[in-house]
Amino acid sequence: MGKVVRLAEHRRRKTRIAFTRSELNQLFSLYSRHVIRGEWRDYAIDHGERLAAFSVYRRSIDLPLFTITKTKLPGNGAERFRIESRRGRLYEGGSIADALAQINKLPHLVTQTG
């Protein structure tokens, strides 16, 4: 049997913050490039009332290498993107493209062949 919900209570619920399709495309593009290099192997996406998070892992059992979060500022509702690693905050700004560019600037694994 269905649950009866009062309309007034339903309207008061806070909306969840989520990545847009465009943002997800950018995140998965970056993720796939690092997977091809053998640097990243797993990811997790979380959406909530206060933030959305995309975490990347070297191995599934490890702590995340990076977590990219999206939040909305109170008042004007402007979006903020933050990149954090195990060492702390690496970047905070208003554009996901700028945030992801910061990850591309970081050193990455280099493998020798031959």
What report would you give on this structure?
- The protein is globular, with a radius of gyration of 17 Å.
- With about 110 residues, it is of the alpha+beta class.
- A five-stranded antiparallel sheet has the order 1-2-3-4-5, covered by helices on one side.
- The model has no long low-confidence stretch (mean pLDDT about 85).
- It has one domain (about 15-105).
- Helix 2 runs parallel beside helix 3 (about 95-105).
- It has helices at about 5-10, 20-35, 95-105, and strands at about 40-45, 50-55, 65-70, 80-85, 90-95.
- It starts with 6 loop residues before the first helix and ends in a 9-residue tail after the last helix.
- The protein is built from three helices and five strands.
Short account of what is shown:
28% of the residues lie in helices and 29% in strands. With 114 residues, it is an alpha+beta fold.
